[in-house]
Specification:
Helix content: 25-40%
Number of strands: 8
Number of domains: 2
Strand order of the largest sheet: 2-1-4-5-6-7
Oligomer: single chain
Radius of gyration: 40 Å
Order of helices and strands: HEEHEEEEEHHE
């Protein structure tokens, strides 16, 4: 009898070929997944990089302020003329006005803030005739109130600015007048009043205030 041929070796060779084919497939698939993962990471980084300038641009928006910190945000001022004694002669002042020219509003606001942040010392002085002319006003950013003020235009000129419950005030002479040389001019450009008289400081420091006993 002839011995039967063994087929084990061809079967093993076929198994090895299949195994090598599967190994190549898995390796190719792994490389493909790796490239996909790297590409995905790249897209995330690119997206984050693109959003960074937008976030930075949003961070430069000025936060809403009040008081003298908000001078450049002012868009309007409402001013009321208060006459305690009599209407000054040859005056065409309006009793109330709302002014919306932002450049002039900010100029006036800035001059008032410059004066009250450089307060003049209390001195004994002689003042021009006081006819009781006073201006009360409010600075706005749209409809949001930024600060209120009081400006005494006759006699010894004085200005005060109030914001967030805090009031700063000064007589408009000495360092206050030097810091705000256009205060009366900028106010007059809006309300149409003549420039207040010039005060004449005399003597030394008077803790009691202008025209009060030392």
């Amino acid at each position: 009898m002839e011995p039967m041929a063994r087929r084990v070796r061809p079967t093993r060779m076929m198994d090895q070929r299949l195994l090598r084919g599967r190994t190549r497939f898995l390796a190719t698939a792994g490389i493909g997944l790796l490239f996909a993962a790297v590409s995905g990471c790249g897209s995330v980084v690119a997206s984050d990089s693109a959003s960074a300038p937008a976030a930075a641009a949003g961070a430069t928006t000025a936060a809403p302020q009040v008081g003298c910190a908000s001078v450049n945000q002012a868009t309007a001022v409402t001013i009321r003329n208060v006459l305690h004694m009599m209407v000054p002669v040859n005056t065409k002042a309006k009793t109330s006005i709302t002014y919306r020219q932002a450049a002039q509003v900010r100029a006036l606001f800035g001059q008032m803030c410059a004066a009250v942040t450089h307060p003049a010392p209390n001195l004994l002085m002689h003042c021009p005739a006081d006819v009781g002319t006073e201006f009360l006003g409010t600075f706005y950013d749209g409809t949001r109130a930024l600060a209120t003020f009081t400006y005494t235009a006759s006699g010894c000129a004085r200005v005060s600015v109030t914001a967030a419950g805090k009031t700063l005030s000064t007589g408009v002479y000495g360092p206050a007048a030097a810091a705000a040389p256009r205060l009366a001019i900028d106010l007059g450009a809006i309300v149409g009043t003549p420039k207040p008289g010039t005060m004449q400081p005399q003597g030394g420091v008077n803790p009691g205030g202008p025209n009060k006993p030392a």
